[in-house]
Specification:
Number of domains: 2
Oligomer: single chain
Mean pLDDT: 94
Radius of gyration: 17 Å
Largest sheet: 3 strands, antiparallel
Shape: elongated
Strand content: 15-25%
Order of helices and strands: EEHHHEEEHHHEE
Number of strands: 7
Distance between the termini: 28 Å
Helix content: 25-40%
């Protein structure tokens, strides 16, 4: 990540994930052109004309001014109110085909690593096994079909990879169009 950008504990590399890009646009919150602009989700009932700079996300001013959130609280069960606010109101979201969700481990929100295919996920066998178990619980009982789906992640479906901020274990969920 660029040295001049704010650090986000729960999304440590928003450049790699595509949530920020270099741009000559004015931030809808601070009305300054800071050279970077946010490109992912923002949920609000207000009409927002434009996008936000990383600094207005990091300090919470964008979420406060426009009464919105950068990610839904779905999946963030068991975390403190402080962590919930940090993830939803002061952490950039990410691009996904389905509504993005944040994973939790060790009673803390996990850090979003990025969208990955099977090859990248296989480097983290604990995440692959956790994803396989979650998919079985969701009704994927045909083992050959599940194996085929997971082996072809990156081709029509991907996995969203996270890392626990407490113990370092990797977690994932599947995302498909």
């Amino acid at each position: 990540m660029s040295g001049g950008l704010p650090f986000f504990r729960y999304h440590p590399d928003p450049l790699a994930s595509g949530s920020f890009r270099v741009a000559s646009e004015t931030c809808a919150c601070c009305e300054r052109d800071r050279g970077w602009i946010y490109t992912a989700t923002f949920y609000t009932v207000q009409d927002v004309s434009g996008r936000f700079c990383p600094w207005c996300i990091a300090d919470g001013s964008a979420a406060e001014r426009f009464a919105g959130a950068f990610t839904d609280s779905y999946g963030l069960d068991g975390v403190s109110e402080e962590v919930l606010r940090e993830v939803t109101r002061r952490t950039p979201g990410f691009h996904a085909w389905q509504d993005p969700r944040w994973l939790v481990h060790c009673q803390d929100a996990a850090a979003f690593v990025g969208e990955v295919g099977h090859a990248e996920l296989a480097v983290h066998p604990e995440a692959l096994e956790q994803l396989r178990a979650d998919m079985r619980m969701a009704g994927w009982h045909d083992e050959s079909r599940l194996k085929h789906f997971l082996a072809n992640l990156g081709e029509g479906a991907t996995a969203m990879l996270f890392r626990c901020t407490v113990c370092g274990v990797h977690l994932a969920y599947a995302d498909a169009s």
